[in-house]
Amino acid sequence: MERLIDPFARPISYLRVSVTDRCDFRCTYCMAEHMTFLPKKDLLTLEELDRLSSTFIRMGVEKLRITGGEPLVRRDIMQYFRAMSRHLESGALRELTLTTNGSQLARFADQLADCGIRRVNVSLDTLDPDKFREITRWGRLDQVLEGVRAATRAGMRVKINTVALKGFNEDELFTLLDWCAAEDHDLTFIEVMPMGEMGEEMRLDQYWPLKDLRGRLAERFTLTDLAERTGGPARYVRIEETGQKVGFITPLTHNFCESCNRVRVTCTGELFMCLGQEDMADLRAPLRASPDDALLEEAIRAAIARKPKGHDFDYSRQTVRGQVSRHMSHTGG
Questions:
Q1: Low-confidence ranges of the chain (pLDDT < 70)
Q2: How far apart are CA 129 and CA 186, in angstroms?
């Protein structure tokens, strides 16, 4: 089958699939405490997620990242992971991975490893139990740390994703770095998007530019820029004194579009061709219109033909829910 190529000759080889809008945390920069979630009928079924993902893989996707919400809270989600593992076995899929808050990792780590997952991104913004409970509202740090340990025991490489939050975890910069070094975890810092108000939390007050964070690191360590890319938006440095690899995701202050090979699909089947723009295509309708995949393939190709050259974060046009989903879509290259 002819591979997916966008109008700027970029092959589309990386797909992010959200399998649920639900989460067992309520992180203050991500969700309101009392969320109204989508009706079940609006969500793609596990079978539909299999069909959709498999279609993209036939069309050239080689890396598949599963996201949420929190993907591991979806009922029977391992059925979908097991279905995707067949593409690893066939060689069509090069990598199957997920981004998680870690709360359910202790429960699922061995099964995920059995499905061929070798790398997992865990969102973790603090190592202080009280601050963790404050920012997640409902989370327990010990549960997440046990999940991280379980993933490591199962043979998965863990990358920690930390959202840089002014006035919250500034004082933990070196604590997090030292912990990741001791545990042999990679670490990526993510710049929060200051996109207005989410309940009682003001995003502008939380904005900590990563150039400032990097400057703090450079006061203590020697940082060497790396050419490495993982298919995501992160830029990496090596800390010469420790050998650690540290990533920076800066959607506001750095344009990472020139080699963009990725698209994302929401749990309702909306395909976003750019992580920073509102344009999307409905894939649920063609998916449900026919058991044959011809209509779905046609809709995907038509959407990729509209993929823009770069993103445009014009916050004046965006709704809070759109801002949140877009911010979370950046977590974890």
A1: 193-204, 229-232, 252-256, 311-333
A2: 21
